[in-house]
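Data availability (excerpt). The following record was deposited with the supplementary files.
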Amino acid sequence: MISPELKAQLQALVGDKWVLDRPADLYAYSYDATPMYQAMPDAVVFPASAQEVSGILQLANTHQIPIITRGSGTNLAGSTIPIQSGIVLNMNRMNQIHEIDTANLTATVGPGVVTANLHHAVEALGLFYPPDPGSMRISTIGGNIAQGAGGMRGLKYGVTKDYVMGLEYVLPSGEILRCGGKNVKDVAGYDMTRLLVGSEGTLAVITEVTLKLLPLPETKRTLVAYYRNLVDAAKTVEAIIASKIIPATVEFMDQGTMKVVDDFAKLGLPLEMKSMLLIEQDGPAEVVNRDIEQIATIAQEHGAAGVEVASTPEEGAKLLAARRAALSALSRLKPTTILEDATVPRSRLAEMVEEVERVAEKYGVQICTFGHAGDGNLHPTCMTDERNREEIERVDKAFEEIFHAAIRLGGTITGEHGVGLAKKDFLHLKTGEAGLELMQRLKAAFDPNGILNPGKIVNFTNRRRLVVQR
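Predicted structure:
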């Protein structure tokens, strides 16, 4: 519980209306987009500046109160669940685009800026911010950075971490620090910027971000290819890359996902097919037209039963919008939808999809798979009902086996969702025990009292006793 005295101090920092502690308000911040995780905070506080964040952290550190930094709560790893109660620090008031620097091709923004709003702002100036997580119309830049978000354009352009040039951040002590900046080259000391990206609010609170921008591509075209099996689709992806073509987007959907998306978006997909690839290329018109023609030829040579090129940008946009709607479409099937993101090297894509199908059959659960075929990032998605405890136990076993399969194939347990609560028990598969111990020591250096998002990524008790539990 937050004492009346502490509540008054928080209100003095941010204003009365920006401190919430009514049960109905707290309930709204007791969960995020991750199913089956929920815990009530003691208060929700909305800072408007780095100075206010500093004051809040000093109070929390003094009183040993957990701080859970949150944006829109769209993460799928349970990363913003206040499992030890405490204060949810909602950063959405810090939603200003401070500067778009066309000379240096950077944008400086607050962590509460919605990703799609940044896209619109820079594109109006002929510039481009490539990271496009599926939640981009809702998710915030700060949340993208905290979780190490990816997106559909990751193959050609990279992911969020590749565009973060500098940060302003606040330590639990209240110190306001900066790292990185607008310099293209900067190797002065440890790379604190890269360390904080993907740290899920466990090391510091990010209060300002400097992002790299690119020139807006001149044009783009979209192609879809359909396959009677999974192997041919995977081989097509390999062949496209081997031919030295790097598409902006290469998306995969299996037959189960195709059926649900088609019912949702009414695209008229050939539902007898086992899989499909959705490919977009962007750049100069001459290059795009050449690449799309070559991709169509490669797809046909590698077993595509049908290849269609979108005749207009609007038609291409509709196909990509349907892919973005895959999770929403699947979520209509059953009360609980569990979306994961096991990732493997591109060359092992077909094997990973086959492993998912094998595991789903073994445990008698419904799993559809879609994802970013170009970078090997698959989203096996299970439709279930959390009220059926026996089925949930089978679902848990199925995903555990899927994560082990990803590691065995040279992959990882998460490509873009983060660790949070949902995958903490599997992190050792990727890092090893020594890697976990090093993360614990880093956590202790930044946050010796363990107040920042406790219980996420690694377990932490105090500065003298650090424990990993599985």
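Summary of structural features: Residues 462-470 have pLDDT under 50 and may be disordered.
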